Amino acid sequence: MTLKIGVIGTGAIGRDHIRRITSNLSGGRITAVTDVNEAAANAVVEQYGLDAVVYPDDQSLLAEGDIDAVLVTSWGPAHEQSVLAAIEAGKYVFCEKPLATTAEGCRRIMDAEIKHGKRLVQVGFMRRYDSGYVQLKQAIDEHVIGEPLMIRCAHRNPESGPNYTSDMAITDTLIHEIDVLHWLLGDDYKSVQVSYPRKTRHALSHMRDPQVVLLETNGGVLITAEIFVNCRYGYDIQCEVIGEDGIVKLPEPSSISLRKEAMFGTRILMDWKDRFIEAYDREIQDFIDSVGRGELQGPTAWDGYIAAVTADACVKAQESGQREEIELDEKPALYEGQAVGQA
Ligand SMILES: NC(=O)c1ccc[n+]([C@@H]2O[C@H](COP(=O)([O-])OP(=O)(O)OC[C@H]3O[C@@H](n4cnc5c(N)ncnc54)[C@H](O)[C@@H]3O)[C@@H](O)[C@H]2O)c1
Ligand SMILES: O[C@H]1[C@H](O)[C@@H](O)[C@H](O)[C@@H](O)[C@H]1O
């Protein structure tokens, strides 16, 4: 069976997912699209030669579209409304991060899913599908390094856009570490503190960059996460887990090495789309396959909620300079067991 998919939001990642479904993946077909910028929706239909109807908004796409599932790839603040409408219509929904911009919004989505009685929502935390992170998780789960004690990581972007603000370092950028690290450790966060080193001259005047976030888990693991979104030299994701018996580290993306003019080196990628290209392919293929089986297995609305609660505490810690507590509601039964990523 071919899954008929509607896409809500045809910007950068919406187009990228349409490209992969149309040219790389199997079992899915784009049959409906919408964007508040109608020209963008029309352009993507033309660019990929889609046999798809362009709808004026998410409501009409969900009501009238010939679809089995939707991808929500609009701006973050628009996600909650589209996801709730998709659940109401009984459609499976893949939602890019953030699931909602507030913890209350994520709660409303969980409540709607619980009322529906079955998982319909997968959140776009694609790092769980990255083979490097999957290997780290395997090593941790198999106690290769004994108990994990500390994690050191860095999330570096070459440059931030003109509308990027200091809190987006958390809600837009660190949110990937927030998700993947609690998944790696199988542990929840307890507290957070944020510090600011000297500011780079490449950052816009209104923002703090870089930032250092210190997270502590319930199990006592200390995580230092550097966020540096104007590092200039590349898109660079680092993660090192220090355990009782050894250390495991995220591999560098594979690349040829070059010896030239008395130098030896490898290229560093510049774009998130390239760095995680295989992970995005796997997560969307997993969504298509899981919907086909009638049982989602990727990141859940509960994971979206954990990320939102943790991000709220991080933003509070940015402002207060103090250590802030992170407290979750009780985990609903619908989300028992750990959602997986795939190698
Ligand atoms: N998983 C990842 O690594 C990753 C990477 C990039 C972006 N994202 C997330 O994906 C989302 C989109 O990011 P982007 O980079 O594609 O942004 P973008 O600005 O390029 O595209 C967003 C599109 O959504 C449209 N839109 C806004 N509100 C809408 C609504 N109510 N209905 C329909 N369309 C609407 C806009 O017109 C725009 O075309 C963001 O939430 C972002 O955080 C995730
Ligand atoms: O939306 C993007 C995307 O999520 C990238 O993975 C992240 O590195 C960027 O900081 C963020 O702005």
TrEMBL record:
<feature type="domain" description="Gfo/Idh/MocA-like oxidoreductase N-terminal">
    <location>
        <begin position="3"/>
        <end position="125"/>
    </location>
</feature>
<keyword id="KW-0520">NAD</keyword>
<dbReference type="Pfam" id="PF01408">
    <property type="entry name" value="GFO_IDH_MocA"/>
</dbReference>
<comment type="pathway">
    <text>Polyol metabolism; myo-inositol degradation into acetyl-CoA; acetyl-CoA from myo-inositol: step 1/7.</text>
</comment>
<dbReference type="InterPro" id="IPR004104">
    <property type="entry name" value="Gfo/Idh/MocA-like_OxRdtase_C"/>
</dbReference>
<comment type="subunit">
    <text>Homotetramer.</text>
</comment>
<dbReference type="Pfam" id="PF02894">
    <property type="entry name" value="GFO_IDH_MocA_C"/>
</dbReference>
<protein>
    <recommendedName>
        <fullName>Inositol 2-dehydrogenase/D-chiro-inositol 3-dehydrogenase</fullName>
        <ecNumber>1.1.1.18</ecNumber>
        <ecNumber>1.1.1.369</ecNumber>
    </recommendedName>
</protein>
<dbReference type="InterPro" id="IPR050424">
    <property type="entry name" value="Gfo-Idh-MocA_inositol_DH"/>
</dbReference>
<dbReference type="InterPro" id="IPR000683">
    <property type="entry name" value="Gfo/Idh/MocA-like_OxRdtase_N"/>
</dbReference>
<keyword id="KW-0560">Oxidoreductase</keyword>
<dbReference type="InterPro" id="IPR023794">
    <property type="entry name" value="MI/DCI_dehydrogenase"/>
</dbReference>
<feature type="domain" description="Gfo/Idh/MocA-like oxidoreductase C-terminal">
    <location>
        <begin position="137"/>
        <end position="322"/>
    </location>
</feature>
<comment type="similarity">
    <text>Belongs to the Gfo/Idh/MocA family.</text>
</comment>
<comment type="function">
    <text>Involved in the oxidation of myo-inositol (MI) and D-chiro-inositol (DCI) to 2-keto-myo-inositol (2KMI or 2-inosose) and 1-keto-D-chiro-inositol (1KDCI), respectively.</text>
</comment>
<dbReference type="InterPro" id="IPR036291">
    <property type="entry name" value="NAD(P)-bd_dom_sf"/>
</dbReference>
